[in-house]
Amino acid sequence: MSTYRLDKLFSPRSVAVVGASPRETSPGRAVLRNLAAAGFEGSVSLVNPRYGEIEGIKAVKSIQELRQAPDLLVIAAPPHSVPGIVAAAGEKGAATAVIITAGLGHGEGSLADACEQAARAADMNLRALLTDSM
Questions:
Q1: Residue 101: what are its φ and ψ, rounded to 5°?
Q2: Do 75 and 86 contact (CB within 8 A), yes or no?
Q3: Tens-digit pLDDT profile for residues 27-85
Q4: Coil, strand, or helix at residue 127?
Q5: For residue 129, what pLDDT is reported?
Q6: DSSP secondary-structure letter at 55?
């Protein structure tokens, strides 16, 4: 496993969460709450095309609308959208991403494989919690 850009994963100055929702059980919303509860002092951004604000954080509709590329992107979006999100994050210049979405599959031709290819093309460090159920 490469250590490239791990400082951005473990000590980010900015975090963007993609896919949080107002639902109490939303994994993305839990990430936002945990960042606040931990006293994260960096900037926190939210990307969600459906909601204008969650947990008091204004949302933008796309990654390209973020003012700056985040050090860390946390992806909690529907599986079919994740490869495109990784590609957009790479184009924006995100250093690293963590995928907490279930159902990406495994192996060649899977959504997980498409995510890895998009991250590699953008020279982005990618970590994924790849499970079939969450």
A1: -85, 135
A2: yes
A3: 999 999 999 999 999 999 999 999 999 988 999 999 999 999 999 999 999 999 999 99
A4: strand
A5: 63
A6: T
94's CB contacts (< 8 A; 6+ apart) are 16, 63, 69, 70, 71, 72, 73, 122, 124
Q: Rounded to two decimals, what is the model's pTM?
A: 0.88
Residues 6+ apart with CB under 8 A from 39: none
Cα–Cα dist 101/108, whole Å: 18
- If one counts every other C-beta atom within 10 angstroms of the C-beta of residue 91, the result is 15
**DSSP-H helix ranges across the chain:** 6-10, 27-37, 82-92, 111-121
Cα–Cα distances in angstroms (integers) from residue 19 to residues 7, 67, 74, 105, 116, in the given order: 24, 18, 9, 19, 19
Q: Which residue matches tokens 């093309």?
A: 121
Q: C-alpha 68: how far from its chain's center?
A: 14
